[in-house]
Amino acid sequence: MSFDDRPEFKALNELEQVLANLREGISDWRRRALRAESERAEIEVGTDAVALRERLIALEAENADLNGRLDAAKGRLEDLLSRLRFLEEQVALEEQRS
Predict the structure, then answer these.
(1) What is the pLDDT of residues 26-65, one digit of tens each?
(2) 8 A C-beta contact, residue 77 and residue 15
């Protein structure tokens, strides 16, 4: 069995991809948070309260969406870690039998 065909290495590649996606998501979240903080700093005290409230609602919705995406990524990561552990156990059993 070649290096690329072993299930534990396929699972490891999947795990690396999930981690890369998670890193990218966190980077996006950080960039958006920094932008929101910058925009908030620019808002003057006399700004229209209705516009400010609408912006706050939009930012809260975006934050909820990002948190949901982050939770989903964490779930996929846990699933892949579980699969990887199982595959590692299977490899260890195969090695013991050999």
Answers:
(1) 888 889 888 888 877 776 555 677 788 888 999 999 999 9
(2) yes
53, amino acid identity: R
Q: Closest Cα to residue 18, out of 93, 67, 74, 65?
A: 74
* Alpha helices (H) along 3-48: 7-42
**Could you tell me if 64 and 87 are in contact, meaning their C-beta atoms sit under 8 angstroms apart?**
no
How many residues would you count in the chain?
Answer: 98
Higher pLDDT, 52 or 91: 91
Residue 64: its H or E element: helix 49-97
Tokens of 85: 């552990």
Q: Residue 39: which residues within 8 A CB-CB, separation 6 or more?
A: 55
The predicted model scores a pTM of: 0.49
